Amino acid sequence: MIMKVRSLTRTAGALAVSALLAGPVVAADEIVRLATTTSTYNSGLLDYLLPKFEAEHPYQIQVIPVGTGKALRMGQDGDVDLVMTHAPDAERAFVEAGYGVNPLSVMYNDFVIVGPESDLADVAGSEDVAEAMADIANSDALFISRGDDSGTHKKELKLWEAAGVAVDFEGYRSVGQGMGKVLQMTNELQGYTLTDRGTWLAMQDKLDLALLVEGDERLFNPYQVILVNPERYDDLNAEGARALAQWLVSDEGQALIDDFRLNGQVLFHASAGEEVSAAQAVSEAAAQ
Amino acid sequence: MHELLETTGDALVLLLSFDPDLWEIIGVSFSVSLAAMLFAIPPALLIALVLARVVFPGRWLLISLANTLMAVPTVVVGLLLFMLLSRSGPLGEWQLLFTQPAMIIGQWLLAMPLLVAMLHSALQGIDQRAWETARLHGAGKMAALWRLLGEARFGVMAAVVASFGRVIAEVGCAIMVGGNIEHFTRNITTAIALETLKGEYAQGIALGLVMLLLALILNLLLGMLRGRGRQIFSS
User: Fold this and answer.
1) How far is CA A38 from the centre of its chain?
2) Which of A188, A205, A208 to mutate to test the interface with B (most CBs of B within 10 A)?
3) Residues A110 and A285: beta-carbon distance below 8 Å
4) Does the pLDDT of residue A264 top 90, yes or no?
5) How large a percentage of chain B has pLDDT more than 90?
6) Any idea what the CATH number is for the domain that residue A261 is in?
7) Which of A83, A152, A168, A173 to mutate to test the interface with B (most CBs of B within 10 A)?
8) Half-sphere exposure of residue A232, counting CA atoms within 13 Å on the CB side?
9) Interchain contact, B182 vs A72, CB within 8 Å
10) CB distance B179–A187 less than 8 Å?
11) Contact A148 B198 (CB under 8 A)
C-alpha cells in the first residue's frame, strides 16, 4: 500500500513538474533519480556527461546534489534510483546492509588542503597530511570543517584521527554546508580546509587561497556508483539506473570522464574495472 | 509513518534530556533574536511616532517604503549584508562576517520595516485626544507619551510579537551571514535547514517542536492581553 502511494505521488510529482516547465510530459518510468555528492555536481562534470547519456537513452536524469551521508540515506529510503558517492567505508556498510547493490568504481581524484597565502601554520609543501593538520590545530589559525557527514567530512575526520587531534580545538569551525560554501567561508575567514581537488579547481579563481598540501596517499578520493536495491522498493526505476551505471563505466563514459576539463585542468580520472593504488592515484593527480 | 513516530520520539528524548548541543542551538536563536529586537524597538518606536504624529513632506513615501521593505525576502537582506561585510566589501575590516553580531544586524534590518509599519498603524489608530487630554491634565511630555503608548498597547504588543516571530523564524539571512557554525552561529532555523542534510532528522524535529511551542506561547500571551483588554473595556 505504501509503495502504491509512493509510486502515485512520484508520478504526480513528475507530471506536475513537467507541466510547470511547460516541456514535454515525461513518463515516470523515463525518470532516473541520481543522488550524488556536491563535488561531482559543482564541478560541472554531470552537466557535461548526462546530456550525452540522455541523447542515447530514453531516460531523463534528475540529479540531487547532496553530501554523501544524505545521498546514502536517500538511497536507503528509496527516494532515488542510484547514488554516486565517495566514502568507501560508508558505501561498504550501505551495500552490506542490503540497501544498495552492484557497486562499481567509476573514477577518482584526490583531496588537498588549501589555506591562506600567509600560511600561518606553515604547512605549505608538507608531504604528511596528518602532520600538517596537527600543525594547523596547534596554530592560531581557523580550520573550516564541512561538518555535514559528507564523504569529504568523513575523510577529514579520519585524517584528524591519524593526526591524533580531537576536533574540539580552539580554531575548529564546523559549518554543515557544501564544499563550495565552505571554500567561500574559508576564504572570508582566511582559514584552512580540506577540499576535493575538483571543487577547488572549479572555484580557485574566485578565492584568495593557496593549495598547500597534496600528494599524501591518504588523500585518495575514489567515487563509486551504487544501485539502490530494487528488491526493497518495487517502484524504483531499476532499469534506468542500471543503464546509467553501465554507461558510466563503459568505454564511452570512461573516455568522456577522462576528457573532462575545467579551466584546462583534468578533474577526474576514470577507474572502472581497474585497481588503482592510492599512492599511484594521488601522485598522478598532484603531478598535474 | 512508523519512522516519523520513531523520529519524533527521538526528538522528545533529545529535548527532555536537555541535550547540550540542542539547547545551545536554541540559546543562539534566542540571544540573537532578542538582541535584534532590543536594538530595533526604540528606533522603530521613534520613527513610528514621528510618522504618526508629525506631518512633514515625504511622510507617505516613508510609510510606503516601510510597507514595501516588509516584503523583501530574507535572503536578499542576507546577500546585501554579506557583500557589505565580506573581506572585499566596504565593511570588511570590521570582521563581522559569520559572527552573532552579523546575524543581529541582519535580523535588525528585517525587524525594522515590520516594526515601523505595524507600530505606525497602531499609533495612528489612537484618538489624538489621548495626548491632548493627558497634556491638559498637567502631564509632562514623557508622561503623555507613556499614556499614548498605553492606549496603543495591543497594537504595540502585536507589532513586537509579530516582528520577533519573523526574525526568530527566518533562515535565509542567518545562513548567509551567520554561516551555521557549530557552537557559534548555528541557530534553530539554520540547524533545521542544514543539519537534516546529514540524514539525521530527530534534531530537526526537536527544534521544529521548540519553534511551534514558541509560536503557541507568543499567541497565548497576545490572546491573554487582548482578553484583558476586553474586560477593562466592558466594565
Assistant:
1) 5
2) A188
3) yes
4) no
5) 52
6) 3.40.190.10
7) A173
8) 18
9) no
10) no
11) yes
| C-alpha–C-alpha distance, residues A144 and A164, integer Å | 18
B97 lies within 8 A of chain A by CB: yes
Give me the amino acid identity at B147. Answer: R
For A59-88, write each residue's pLDDT tens digit.
999 999 888 888 999 999 999 999 999 999
User: What is the domain range of residue B95?
Assistant: 26-186
Looking at A219, A236, A268, the residue that finishes a domain is A219
Q: What is the pTM of this model?
A: 0.81
Q: How far is CA B71 from the centre of its chain?
A: 14
Sequence letter at residue A131: E
Find the domain containing A140 and state its range: 110-219
Q: Which residues of A touch B198 (CB under 8 A)?
A: 67, 69-70, 148-149, 176
B98/A contact by beta carbon, under 8 A: yes
C-alpha distances in Å from residue A191, one per residue of A188, A219, B233: 8, 19, 61
CA distance A1 to A5: 6
Q: What is the pLDDT of residue B14?
A: 86
Q: How many domains does chain A have?
A: 2
Which chain B residues touch A142 with a CB distance below 8 Å? none
Residue with cell 497576545: B222
* Domain limit, last residue, from A219, A254, A274: A219
- Chain B residue with CA closest to A153: the answer is B198
**Residue numbers in A near B197 (CB within 8 A):** 66-67, 69-70, 148-149, 176
Phi, psi (degrees; rounded to nearest 5) at A78: 75, 20
* Same domain flag for A36 and A114: no
Is this complex scored with an ipTM above 0.90? no
Give the CA dihedral A188, B189, A64, A110, nearest 10 degrees: 40
Q: Are A213 and A234 found together in one domain?
A: no
Provide the pLDDT for residue B235: 38
Domain count, chain B: 1
